[in-house]
């Protein structure tokens, strides 16, 4: 699905933003029939209220949208997207005195509100279109919206139609569109090329595991994005209960997010060299599935004791990160739907991340605030290293006790990276209930913040 603004020559219906603070003054400036209409319909500028005003021909002449007060905007993102979801098809124009950031958020929210996942049922409605507001970089926002919609589509697609093959096809399509290169190592070739843990996790599936390696750009600083591509996770022999398995089509949300971010970067032609690494597997059960108690050797030579086959994401990421570390980038970012502990800690709406680089962390958090893509820095607490050191092997993939699960997973991944500028995101990739511009279902987390931070972090 693509998101586009209305052509500039379209006649547009203005949408007037009215806050609760200015409502009385605004109302006093209107003609008596408009005052009567507004009062009869109970419009007061309360956040999210929508009222159409009739013109002389009884058609819609204007739309009022309640802008609420300042606290409303700290509680909810993309408030203006409520108008996009509620108004009939047509062309509209934003009428309100907003800061640059608020205008950009309102405009992007409008675009994202047009997203529908219609592959299996329904049809895309004729969504209302918005004229480009003053001062808004339309191509940039269209590229960001398109990248987010790619992420949503990939996550929302069930595993029956989004296995390692299909994830490779999505990556190949992106590479062909932007003249990038794609190298794929699949099946037993993973052993020949020293990706043992990717092979081990995926070998029990009838769908061959693989490593996807996409590269784009010929000059500028280097950025490597690593995304967890577990297309479905049964939990392996430590089988997940049914309630926990129901959403596991989203366990490739890290891969979907880095592909959406990669599309944004390439679409905007950022002056950098991009590499995307995705270990694409299905964690299944068969006679050759890996077992609790097994000890695996990773690409970089570290040994890993398997105490739970359901902690498989960190295993496949370890091989991919070890490959990335062989040619260190100026910035390496890992994104994964890695732990339930992260959801317990920060809920579904925040993207927690880990890094030892204070300047990088500050740039990411500030960017998240600017673009309303909230992030939360978590501690790489080194005293917990002993929790992932079982004695019988170098590392434990699932330390007992249940404490600090997201932190110990991040510390595990950190053992495979020596590059100084590294951040790991433990995302959820799923919106459990509908919100403005974010319908229930797959959702990107952190990508817009990273995109906004890149010019500062990489000096673009």
UniProtKB/TrEMBL annotation:
Q: Quote the PROSITE patterns the UniProt record gives.
A: CYTOSOL_AP (PS00631)
* Domain (Cytosol aminopeptidase) ranges: 308-315
This protein's UniProt keywords: Aminopeptidase, Hydrolase, Manganese, Protease
Spell out the InterPro entries in the cross-references. Leucine_aapep/pepB (IPR011356), Macro_dom-like (IPR043472), Peptidase_M17_C (IPR000819), Peptidase_M17_N_1 (IPR048816)
Q: Which GO terms describe its molecular function?
A: aminopeptidase activity
Q: Name one Pfam family in it.
A: Peptidase_M17
Q: Which PANTHER family match?
A: LEUCINE AMINOPEPTIDASE-RELATED, PEPTIDASE B
UniProt lists the family membership as follows: Belongs to the peptidase M17 family.
Know the name of this protein? Leucyl aminopeptidase
């Amino acid at each position: 699905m693509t998101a586009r603004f209305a052509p500039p020559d379209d006649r547009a219906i203005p949408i007037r933003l009215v806050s609760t603070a200015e409502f009385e003054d605004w109302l006093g400036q209107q003609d008596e029939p408009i005052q009567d209409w507004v009062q009869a319909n109970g419009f007061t500028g309360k956040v999210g209220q929508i009222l159409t005003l009739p013109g002389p021909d009884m058609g819609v002449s204007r739309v009022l949208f309640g802008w609420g007060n300042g606290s409303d905007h700290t509680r909810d993102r993309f408030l203006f997207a409520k108008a996009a979801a509620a108004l009939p098809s047509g062309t509209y124009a934003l009428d309100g005195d907003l800061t640059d950031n608020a205008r950009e958020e309102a405009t992007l929210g409008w675009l994202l509100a047009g997203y529908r996942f219609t592959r299996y049922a329904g049809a895309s409605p004729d969504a209302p279109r918005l004229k480009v507001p003053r001062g808004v970089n339309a191509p940039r926002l269209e590229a960001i919206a398109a990248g987010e919609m790619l992420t949503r589509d990939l996550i929302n697609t069930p595993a029956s139609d989004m296995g390692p093959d299909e994830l490779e096809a999505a990556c190949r399509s992106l590479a062909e569109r932007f003249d990038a290169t794609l190298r794929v190592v699949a099946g037993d070739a993973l052993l020949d090329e020293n990706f043992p843990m990717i092979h081990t996790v995926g070998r029990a599936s009838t769908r061959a595991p693989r490593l996807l390696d996409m590269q784009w750009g010929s000059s500028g600083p280097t950025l490597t994005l690593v995304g967890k591509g577990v297309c479905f996770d049964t939990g392996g022999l430590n089988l997940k209960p049914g309630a926990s398995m129901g959403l596991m089509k989203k366990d490739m949300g890290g891969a979907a997010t880095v592909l959406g971010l990669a599309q944004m970067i390439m679409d905007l032609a950022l002056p950098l060299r991009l590499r995307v690494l995705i270990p694409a597997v299905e964690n299944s059960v068969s006679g050759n599935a890996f077992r609790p108690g097994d000890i695996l050797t990773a690409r970089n030579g570290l040994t890993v004791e398997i105490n739970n086959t359901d902690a498989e994401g960190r295993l496949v990421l370890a091989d991919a990160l070890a490959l990335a570390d062989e040619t260190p980038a100026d910035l390496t970012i890992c994104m994964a739907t890695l732990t339930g502990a992260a959801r317990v800690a920060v809920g579904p709406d925040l993207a927690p991340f880990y890094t030892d680089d204070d300047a990088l962390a500050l740039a990411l958090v500030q960017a998240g605030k600017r673009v309303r893509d909230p992030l939360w820095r978590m501690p790489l607490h080194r005293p917990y290293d002993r929790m992932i050191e079982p004695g019988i092997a170098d590392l434990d993939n699932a330390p007992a006790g249940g404490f600090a699960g997201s932190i110990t997973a991040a510390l595990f991944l950190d053992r495979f990276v020596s590059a100084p500028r590294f951040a790991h995101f433990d995302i959820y990739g799923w919106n459990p209930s509908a919100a403005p511009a974010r319908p229930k279902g797959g959702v990107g987390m952190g990508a817009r913040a990273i995109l906004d931070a890149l010019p500062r972090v990489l000096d673009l």
